[in-house]
């Protein structure tokens, strides 16, 4: 008996304890990703990144998973962090791809061009050339120096989050900084008036938007903002004028399409909003919590209750912070 015990101890002493390292977690994550089990893939990749936080490959793979589930801003946030510590060239293509999904084609073109300058025969060179062919780039858009892109991206990501979750007081100081640092960045001005209005400074917000519209009569975001502002204030004549303008506008870019759909929903043009939401390509806008919030709200009020509930549940799954809110048709 004693001899058997000693043999057992010898055997146990020869067992090598298994301590997983980053490569193991990364492999498991890639396997789950290939099976399209994205939740599991994210868990494995997080473990891999904890083991080797300096490895850019792990962060890039995680960003690809985020892209696949439509979390384009989260993907670009990861990639930007990688570029802060290393010049991992693939990041530029991946960022460009995410920008294209978001409809930010000017930004997408600049990043994809930078990737091709760095790696004309890189792993993504075919995809990069294909992406360039798809980009409808307006040559009159403002140009940004590449060295400014990382800084403005950080601002954009943070402001986007606060605006999507209607955290106006947090958004305002950041947007003010953006307008000081990047005075030609037009979208910041519209975000500013929007946050200003819902922070209680209605008159100033309207005047600023009217000033923009005077200089640029076709500024889409001025019309969407003013339609919402006038509706909130009960100024029926002015609100209807803005809405009539929007009814004749059918943009190409997904973000602009979404903004019109949301504006229609928030100004009680529910049937038209419902039709506008249906015209959206979901994969281009599912990174926006507002898509799920206002599409589900609209669906509920046009009688599509089951669809409304399904949309809201999907939105909460993709954007966990939404689950802290009431179902939008109960909160409006």
From TrEMBL:
The protein's matches in Gene3D superfamilies, at most eight in alphabetical order, are given as: Tetratricopeptide repeat domain
Q: Where are the TPR repeats?
A: 22-55
| Classification via SMART domains | TPR
| UniProt KW keywords | TPR repeat
Lineage top rank: taxon: Bacteria
What name appears for this protein in its UniProt entry? Answer: Tetratricopeptide repeat protein
> What is the species of this protein?
Virgibacillus halodenitrificans
């Amino acid at each position: 008996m004693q001899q058997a015990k000693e043999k057992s101890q010898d055997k146990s002493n020869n067992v090598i304890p298994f301590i997983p390292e980053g490569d193991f977690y990364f492999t498991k994550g890639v396997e789950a990703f290939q099976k399209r089990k994205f939740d599991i893939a994210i868990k494995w990749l997080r473990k891999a990144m904890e083991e080797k936080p300096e490895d850019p490959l792990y962060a890039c793979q995680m960003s690809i998973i985020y892209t696949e589930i439509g979390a384009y801003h989260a993907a670009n946030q990861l990639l930007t962090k990688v570029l802060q510590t290393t010049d991992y060239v693939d990041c530029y293509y991946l960022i460009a791809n995410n920008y294209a999904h978001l409809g930010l084609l000017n930004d997408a073109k600049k990043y994809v061009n930078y990737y091709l300058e760095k790696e004309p025969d890189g792993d993504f060179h075919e995809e990069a050339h294909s992406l360039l062919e798809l980009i409808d780039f307006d040559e009159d858009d403002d140009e940004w120096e590449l060295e400014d892109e990382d800084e403005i991206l950080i601002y954009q990501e943070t402001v986007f989050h606060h605006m999507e979750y209607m955290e106006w007081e947090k958004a305002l100081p950041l947007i003010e900084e953006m307008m000081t640092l990047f005075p030609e960045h037009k979208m910041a001005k519209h975000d500013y008036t929007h946050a200003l209005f819902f922070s209680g400074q209605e008159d100033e917000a309207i005047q600023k938007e009217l000033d923009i519209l005077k200089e640029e009569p076709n500024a889409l975001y001025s019309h969407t903002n003013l339609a919402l502002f006038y509706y909130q204030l009960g100024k029926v004549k002015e609100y209807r004028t803005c809405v009539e303008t929007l009814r004749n506008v059918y943009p190409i870019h997904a973000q602009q399409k979404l903004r019109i759909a949301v504006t229609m929903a928030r100004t009680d043009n529910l049937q038209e909003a419902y039709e506008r939401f249906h015209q959206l390509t979901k994969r281009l806008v599912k990174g926006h919590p507002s898509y799920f919030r206002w599409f589900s709200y609209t669906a509920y009020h046009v009688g599509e209750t089951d669809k409304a509930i399904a949309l809201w549940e999907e939105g909460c799954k993709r954007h966990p912070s939404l689950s802290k809110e009431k179902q939008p048709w109960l909160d409006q």
